[in-house]
Design goal:
The complex is a heterodimer of chains A (170) and B (307).
Chain A lengths: L3 E7 L2 E7 L5 H8 L18 E4 L2 E4 L12 E3 L12 H8 L9 H14 L5 H7 L11 H28 L1
Parallel strand pairs in A: 1-5
Antiparallel strand pairs in A: 1-2, 3-4, 3-5
Helix pairs in contact in A: 2-5
Chain B lengths: L13 E3 L4 H11 L3 E4 L5 H6 L7 E4 L9 E3 L5 E3 L5 H12 L14 H8 L4 H6 L2 H6 L8 H6 L3 E5 L4 E5 L4 E3 L2 E2 L6 E7 L6 E8 L9 E10 L2 E10 L6 E2 L1 H7 L6 H14 L10 H21 L3
Parallel strand pairs in B: 1-3, 2-3
Antiparallel strand pairs in B: 4-5, 5-10, 6-7, 6-10, 8-9, 11-12, 12-13, 13-14
Classes of the chains: A alpha+beta (170), B alpha+beta (307).
Amino acid sequence: MQRKTIHLTLNGEPREWSVYPNELLLNVLREQEFLTGAKYGCGIGECGACTVHLNGAPMLSCLTLAIACDGADILTIEGLARDGKLDAVQEAFLEHSAFQCGFCTPDMIMMTRALLNENPQPSEAQVRDYLRGNLCRCTGYASILRAALDAAAVLNVRRNIHAAEERADA
Amino acid sequence: MLPTNTHLLYPEFDYFAPLTIYEATELLAQYGEDARIMAGGTDLLVQMKMERQQPSYIISLARISALGGIKRLEHGGLEIGPTTTIRALYQYLTSSLQLPISNFQSPTSNLQSLQEACNWFSTIQIMHMATIGGNLCNASPAADSAPPLLAFDAQVTLKSKTSERTLPLTEFFIAPGKSIARPDELLTHIYLPASLPDTGSAFIKIARVTADISQVCAAVRITREGNCAQDARIALGSVAPTPMRATVAERDLIGQTFSLELAEHIGKQAAQEIKPISDVRATREYRQHIAAVIVRDALLRAWERTQ
């Protein structure tokens, strides 16, 4: 078994990794990059705790070989805030206290972010459906649902204001 | 490296990511039974973590562009590349199904059962990773995509370095976890024949929770002529060693005037053809009972969709 050098983008920064074929993306993120937001939960694709964005889509880093990420664009919870400002989804989770122990919070936020990228105005049923692969053992999900819907509403207001400002400038 | 509990893939293997189908079949010819093909990896890596499989070589299909994509064929059929993710297929079918009614005869307008199977496929993350080809090649009796594809008379093409064969999907599944593909063969194409007009389809899955595999699932397709079922297919999952068609029920349905009573009768007939087992997900008796119910319901739904 030989190491291979791969190149990728991690949270907007170029990276060069030297990885063995049996290293999982989650291993490298946590142990080499010290990005511990993505968690090891079940290891078999049932809990969603290791969710990161791979080329824009939410995927499970514990079922992804690191070596297969050559050329990939990876976003983890640590890369979501921009210029010291939290993402609207992060703000919403804080405002609605959508966590207790916090273990699933990074995956819930990354999943909600992926949903809003795909569908900016989801219904409650669509949020429930999209988050069906993310387990939380303490909140009962009600606060997470509220946070996800509020983040969508806040982002829509911001988009409308932005559009109005652009019209005013034109 | 800090020791943590995240490193759970112990087996060692070499990894190949060929760029062409030919390169992949060359690797398969060379390594055969010591190699495993990986598409999305959502089943293979779980099997390896559980030490049910220990390949010496993994051949990833992720970089072979010729294996991806969905094409409409000239005669109206559909060709689905095996590395198409379940999510991509779902999105393709969803946008096709939203065509205006004047496009009703379009080749994908009656593929609603396949779209439903994709929609109920595990979780969104798995949908983004798992592929239609991987779902078939895994040969699980519970593969969600198998019943709708069986009901559409799908065909598959298997290629090795020196051979190529195309066969109906009904001949593809052999036993739980076993397909007819030889260790040196690669699934390269999935074909759906052109749809007949006035055809409807439906898929129903019963599972403990939405993200789980099915306890029982069923897909049906009906082509209508007046009040008669002129042609029909009924396929079920998680009720036998392989995904299967209920061919006696199909024969009883074809040519008959469609009614609720007929759908009930056909559901019961299909339930007699299955060979379910009891396992952690359901008992044999429950599967027997629920198969009749969901075949009936799927028939009613598909019939509605023919008009």
